Request: fold
Amino acid sequence: MTTQVFGIFGWPVGHSLSPAMHNAAFAELGIDARYLPFAVRPEHLKDALCGVRALGISGINLTLPHKQRAIAELDSLSPDAAAVGAVNTIAARTDATGVIRLEGHNTDANGVVEALREAGAELRNMRVVVLGAGGAARAAVVGLATAGAAQITVAARQSAQAAELVHQLQPHFPTAVVVAAPFDGTLSTVFSAADLLIHATSATLAADATTTAAFVAALPLHCLPKNAIVNDLVYTPRQTSILLAANALGLRTVDGLGMLLHQGAAAFELWTGHPAPLRVMRQALFEALAHPPA
Ligand code: NDP
Reply:
């Protein structure tokens, strides 16, 4: 039996914590497999996916900028991937005739939901505000609507982006009300009627301290009800400025490492058929975050 190969395609990819998380899980369960980061340029994605078939790679995660572009190269899409319109996990399966078929999944949606459930959130009938309308926001909307949220308001600085997200996702979820809102002074009204705030913008990612402070100061966190939960999908650092500000107001907070862990756990289970060793994977993430890849 040969060593199974898994990995992540991204550009850049060196920052990814997924290799540490998955290799720890394989070691824990005694599975003969390795998970590697592959720096795949956007123009090489098609060739790289042909390589998955040609080399017999068993499974791949996709990160920026590949999650949407990969879809055209795959043989099938799971319902979550179809709804989100993006793939973060590919499972390579050999069919009865020996042909390798690439299945596209989206475990980000499940990752958002499981992280919140683990933190004790009761998602059914929740009123949610999602900041941002990119890939992570789409996954959050799909996950939360599937989990029974009553209302999801998407606030994005480009109103057309939020409107498009709503237009595409609302038909999939007739029991949830999905609406767009402007990212401006009117957010205070939207926040005052929210049980859960999800930060899914890249505004604070790699931003300097002044820019981040200005972005956080402009969020009317004080208008959230006292029992609201604030979930920042950004996990570097783990205690982000948004979470610190929410904590200071006495609000419950959930960090972004939970989403990373649970999307990885769902991918691991799709690939191996084994329950993911969550404790070991979480510990590996903590250690990788404390000592990030060079
Ligand atoms: P995208 O690039 O797809 O979307 C980013 C969104 O943020 C866009 O709507 C963008 O708007 C908006 N945005 C950027 N800057 C600002 C700003 N200054 N003010 C308001 N909106 C802004 O990124 P992703 O959705 O993939 O990722 C978003 C965040 O989620 C990232 O920080 C990422 O780290 C995190 N993430 C976490 C994961 C986890 O496992 N915890 C998984 C995936 C992502 P515009 O188009 O106008 O720029």
